Amino acid sequence: MEHFDVAIIGLGPAGAALARQLSGKMRVIALDKKRQSGNEGFTKPCGGLLAPDAQRSFIRDGITLPVDVIANPQIFSVKTIDTAASLTRNYQRSYININRHAFDLWLKSLIPDDVRIYHDSLCRKIWHEDGKWHVIFRADGWEQQITARYLVGADGANSLVRRHLYPQHQIRKYVAIQQWFAEQHPVPFYSCIFDNDATDCYSWSISKDGFFIFGGAYPMKDGQARFEALKTKMETFHFQFGKPVKSEKCTVLFPSRWSDFVCGEKNAFLIGEAAGFISASSLEGISYALDSAEILKCVLLQGAPDINNAYRKATRKLRIKLYGKILKSRALTSAQARKWIMQSGIAHIPSGQKEQPTVTPGGLIEEH
Fold this sequence. Notes:
Belongs to the CbrA family. By secondary structure, the protein is of the alpha/beta class. Helix content is 27%, strand content 28%. It has helices at residues 13-22, 52-61, 100-109, 160-165, 223-234, 286-302, 307-314, 316-332, 335-344, and strands at residues 2-9, 28-31, 49-50, 77-82, 87-92, 96-97, 116-118, 122-129, 132-139, 142-153, 173-182, 190-194, 203-208, 211-218, 246-253, 268-270, 358-359, 365-366. Strands 1, 2, 7, 8, 9, 10 and 16 form a seven-stranded mixed beta sheet that branches. The protein has a seven-stranded mixed beta sheet with strand order 5-4-12-13-14-11-15, sandwiched between helices. It has a two-stranded antiparallel ribbon with strand order 3-6. Strand 9 and strand 10 form a beta hairpin. The longest helix is centred in the last third of the chain and has 17 residues, at 286-302.
């Protein structure tokens, strides 16, 4: 049975960044559900927008994006829609439109060869015994077992590591549903949609490489029905759908309190969405995945006596920032507060394109 310094479960942005940064400094093994290349197997359902904080992380690492990761078009504003108030506003946003699966595979390709990687693998069981973490996983067609001094859960919303460490912890979850359509809109756009009848979270649309992606985060119980009802409603706002090319679905975490940010214990650590490090106001998680990986790298290499406490302290600034996103989300998902913000016109940039009038629920016609 081989022994490693660090075992990383999951090679999304958080796990891939950590594995790359620990290369040559510690003996690392990493397990990932995705295949090494191609579009077969597991792919992460995601709108694929790279936020400024994520861009800054790449600047610090001296990394530039390859052209085959970037999607078209690049749009510099988000059309924000409040369906109940029939309000539309345009807010400037500096996102980079990317192909999320190609982005994930590219991040994995940056990991040096001294890191042992098992692609298309499944972690089956973990436990802590005799001061070591034991990991049983299936890869290359057979079941294998290793031990590690440190265990890192970078395995997303349904993290096995988080559930093992905190079996009683309950965090708010939604089902994220996306459908892809052939783009029919004359001018591509991004949008953020608030409709309290559909969800107390939010929905979105993204134009990407000739496709129009429409999705949202909905209650787990009847998410599909709410998604379909909102699609019908959005036709009033001149959204054009047609027949879906493909549909995607996954669980997404929604931190709503300070205790939803969990860092780990017993030489096990959580990074990225597995730790609850995801924005409650936008559901953006790549930035915090990269930031938490960088923080944990520094903590592991410093080798503090109480290493879990050191990581908890080192992530405090990040957790405070994310708690601010929780407070922001409460304002955005409150119908009255949101209506006041949008009616105020703060930060709104009028579009040069004349939009068609929208028929409000009361039958009135309102120009935007």
